[in-house]
Write a structure and sequence with these properties.
By secondary structure, the chain is α/β, with parallel strands linked by helices. It contains nine helices and ten strands. It has a six-stranded mixed beta sheet with strand order 6-7-8-3-9-10, with helices on both faces. Strands 2-1-4-5 form a four-stranded antiparallel beta sheet, covered by helices on one side. β1 and β2 form a beta hairpin. The radius of gyration is 18 Å and the shape is globular. It binds adenosine-5'-diphosphate and magnesium ion (MG). Belongs to the ABC transporter superfamily. This is Amino acid ABC transporter ATP-binding protein.
Length: about 240
């Protein structure tokens, strides 16, 4: 579903990604972990063309993301993304936030979009909050609206960049629960996360990045129990 081949990214003279390759198969849950500044956000942003790569290839299904003639809308329909900052429209209700892109970007029928948006609100367990404004919702609730908003575009893969990092501990759980349910429904998910328990329980595969390279990767069982690289061991000793 997603394939990265020798992806490099520099900002000026700073090389942030130094040849990253991996792939994500349909239905897989992949977690990327690593120290701050190691290039995780840059990597995930390259996949939906928020950041142009310097060299290398990124394929999302049959779309070549680095193609200068890239159809960004076609890519955005396949790839949903949720950030640490949920950036909901403050003057729109939760339901209106979820409905906005399908109506204004895809010009879909309002009645159908609303029906789907209500179902998505239910899916993220926010039934009853449809008419609330973002300011009336907790951080965890707003983040779940942001997830529903992404799902409203019916993506094939969801990218999550530290979506729980700004939340209170008690609301982190509910957001992780939503993502876990999505994964169990078969959604292909690529997450940058510091939630090691979540990664251990839910991920099919873990990638550990440091200074723009993948240092080590593997299924969670071996990754967490027998990390082989000293950098991985040091990182895990700090976060576990
Ligand atoms: P992480 O998500 O792992 O913390 P990032 O991908 O955000 O790492 O950042 C990796 C490095 O790239 C950092 O040194 C950061 O300062 C730099 N960086 C990220 N985005 C930009 C940008 N738009 N312009 C210049 N430098 C950037
Ligand atoms: Mg980041």
């Amino acid at each position: 579903m997603v394939q990265l081949i020798d992806v490099h990214k520099s900002f000026g003279t700073l090389e942030v990604l130094k040849g990253v390759s991996f792939d994500v198969k349909k239905g897989e849950v992949i977690c990327i972990i690593g120290p701050s500044g190691s290039g995780k956000s840059t990597l995930i942003r390259c996949i939906n063309a928020l950041v142009p790569v310097t060299s290398g290839t990124i394929l999302v299904e049959n779309i070549e993301v680095a193609d200068p003639k890239l159809d960004k809308l076609a890519l955005r329909r396949k790839v949903g993304m949720v950030f640490q900052q949920y950036n909901l429209f403050p003057h729109k209700t939760a339901l209106q936030n979820v409905m906005m892109a399908p109506i204004h970007v895809l010009h879909q029928d309002k009645g159908e979009v609303e029906e789907r948006a209500r179902a998505l609100m239910k899916k993220v367990r926010l039934t009853g909050k449809e008419d609330s404004y973002p300011g009336e919702l907790s951080g965890g609730q707003q983040q779940r609206v942001a997830i529903a908003r992404s799902l409203a575009m019916r993506p094939d893969i969801m990218l999550f960049d530290e979506v729980t990092a700004a939340l209170d501990p008690e609301t982190v759980k509910e957001v992780l629960f939503t993502i876990r349910e999505l994964a169990e429904d078969g959604m292909t998910c690529l997450l940058v996360t510091h939630e090691m328990n979540f990664a251990r329980d839910v991920a099919d595969h873990i990638y550990f990045t440091d200074h723009g390279v993948i240092v080590e990767h593997g299924p969670p069982a071996s990754f967490f129990s027998a990390p082989s690289d000293p950098r991985t061991r040091e990182f895990l000793s700090q976060v576990l």
